[in-house]
Structures are given as structure tokens and as C-alpha cells.
Automatic annotation (TrEMBL):
<dbReference type="Pfam" id="PF13489">
    <property type="entry name" value="Methyltransf_23"/>
</dbReference>
<dbReference type="InterPro" id="IPR029063">
    <property type="entry name" value="SAM-dependent_MTases_sf"/>
</dbReference>
<keyword id="KW-0808">Transferase</keyword>
<dbReference type="GO" id="GO:0008168">
    <property type="term" value="F:methyltransferase activity"/>
</dbReference>
<keyword id="KW-0489">Methyltransferase</keyword>
<dbReference type="GO" id="GO:0032259">
    <property type="term" value="P:methylation"/>
</dbReference>
<protein>
    <submittedName>
        <fullName>Methyltransferase</fullName>
    </submittedName>
</protein>
Amino acid sequence: MEWDAKKYNTTHDFIFKYGAGLLELLPKEPKKVLDIGCGTGELTNQMAELGHVVTGIDQSVNMINQAKESYPDLTFLQEDILNLSDQIGLYDIAFSNAVFHWISDQELLLKNISEHLNPNGQLICEFGAVGNVQAIREAFGRELRMLGVSFEEPFCFTSVEDYRVLLEKNHFEVVEILEYERPTPLKGGESGLRAWMEQFYAAELGELTDDQKEKLLANMERDLKPKLWKEDHWEADYRRLRINAVKL
Ligand SMILES: C[S@@+](CC[C@H](N)C(=O)[O-])C[C@H]1O[C@@H](n2cnc3c(N)ncnc32)[C@H](O)[C@@H]1O
């Protein structure tokens, strides 16, 4: 999926704003950090300001170009974490916010991370937990089924139990792993849910006619209003998984 980096920075900036809490898990002394799926580079820059030597990687050209434009003094590379080039090197810390749930091959993801970490290197990351945006996903699936459109969930949302097993199988020792609810206000008032859908389900919505899309979004707004509309904004039912683990 390609990203609209300008829209990401203005409408979906809650992603890196919430992600800033993860920075507290970083050691105080300067480390060499790989920011996986760095997006527009906002957290990469905050880590650099804390004194770390950071390389941001992202598979999206738009995101990497925006990151380079915003922070020309930092290192950003267009790279897919599942297919890294030789220039990546070794790091003390692999950091990642709001990325892992986009990746279907979690075994390969952890293997590649482990290969680019120094001995005792740390993995600090956060992404969607099981049940993340469940109400929105269920309403979307229901509407697509009514249109006769097949729907394959693009996200991989995991539980503490399953991810602990996966980490241990891939030779990481878990320092901390937790799942938590994070109700998330969406920007844009009445149109907030649409804007969110258009960012995160762009590919699926792009398959519909304008008419189908309009009807689907209107039905979703009607059905989700009792649960997710909060006086003057939509609140998405986010759940997160936060991990701090060490390479054995
Ligand atoms: C929701 S954004 C998060 C960006 C950033 N970490 C932040 O907190 O603002 C998810 C990012 O993951 C990137 N991404 C997804 N799959 C990836 C992969 N296989 N390799 C590298 N980046 C990936 C996307 O291109 C996107 O920029």
C-alpha cells in the first residue's frame, strides 16, 4: 500500500503522537537504533534528539521522501524489512511503532530483526493487538458481504500469549509484553470515520464504484454511531500490544 505522507502528518498524526510513549523504553545512553517502518520520520527525529544514532527505514517512497524533506540531516532508507539490502548493518535497538500488524510473515520479520541486532540487542515495539478496531472491521466486513465483495483482512492483530510464543521461538527473551485498550479520537468531526477508512482501507474501497462506496460508508456511520460517536468526534476502538524484548 502507498501512503499519502502529507495527509498522514496532518490527519493521522495521532499515530506517532501516541507512539512517543514508547520512547520511554529506550536506554538513556546513546544507542544505534533502527526505526522499522519509520513513516514520515517524526519518532526517528525524536530518538535522534535524545542522542541516539538512528536509521529510519520504510518501504513507502512517499513516506521516505517526506522524512528526508522534514529531517535532511538524518538517515532514511527505502527498505522492506522482509527483504533488506546489504547496506543495513547491525544495531543495538530495533524500534517500531504501528507497523508490525501490516506484516503477514511475522516469523521472517523477527528473523530479519534478529539478524540485524547486536548480541543482547533490544526490540522495542508497539502495534495492533487482537480485537483492534474490531467494531469498525466487523461493520466493514458486513457491508462488503452485503455487496457480494470478498474481504481478506489485511491486518495481523496478535495476542500477548501468541506473540510471546513467537518471540521465544525466534530467540528473544521477553522483558515486558502487554495488551491495552487505547480508545482513539479521530480528527475531522463527522467525516473522521470516513477519513480513517480512506487511509487504512484505501485498496478495498478503491475496488468499489463511487455509489457503492458512498452507501457503504453511510451505512457504517449509521451502524457505528451508537458505539463510536462521542458528542463531536468519532472514537476508534484501538487495542495495542507493547513489547520490550532482548535478543538471546
Ligand atoms: C502507520 S505507519 C507508522 C509510521 C511511523 N512508525 C509512525 O509512528 O508514525 C506504518 C508504516 O509502516 C511501513 N511499512 C509497512 N510494511 C513495511 C515493511 N514490510 N517494511 C518497511 N516498512 C513497512 C508503511 O510504509 C508505513 O509507513
